[in-house]
Structures are given as C-alpha cells and as structure tokens.
Amino acid sequence: EHRLTLDHAYGAPENPLTPEENFEKFRRCLTWSAKPIPAEAANRIIAFVSDLEAQDNVAALAALTNPEAA
Question: What pTM was computed for the model?
C-alpha cells in the first residue's frame, strides 16, 4: 500500500506549478481544444504570455488563439 499526504494540492497557490509545468499543462489542454492550435501557434502564445507586462496590446493574444489566423 502506498500513501501520500499533501497539505496543499499540486498547483494550488500554496504549492504552485513551475512556469515550465504550466506551459506543459497548457500544451496538454490544447489537445482537447475544439479547434486545434498548432504547436508553433502554442509556442507564440506562450512567448506572448511570458512577456505579458511588456505587451502594448493584449488584444493580439486573441488573434494568436485563432488557428485560422496563425
């Protein structure tokens, strides 16, 4: 028998994911997208969000999530 007791669930504010773990989770979630987003577009989204504070216009993020515009 194996047991593991956690004070806080993995990914909770008290036990957060690393940035790379968040990116991998995002990529896994994309596999369930109604409109598939290609890997290159996903990389552009990650790069954009990683530097969000420096973006002049966050509306560009919406365009990045549109696979037909990628």
Answer: 0.75
What is the rounded distance in angstroms from the CA atom of residue 5 to the CA atom of residue 3? 7
Identify whether the C-beta of residue 18 lies closer than 8 Å to the C-beta of residue 44: no
Distance (Å) of CA 49 to CA 8, 44, 58, 66: 26, 9, 9, 15
**Tens-digit pLDDT string for the chain (70 aa):** 999 898 999 899 999 999 999 999 999 999 898 888 889 999 999 999 999 999 999 888 988 888 676 4
Q: For residue 70, which amino acid is it?
A: A
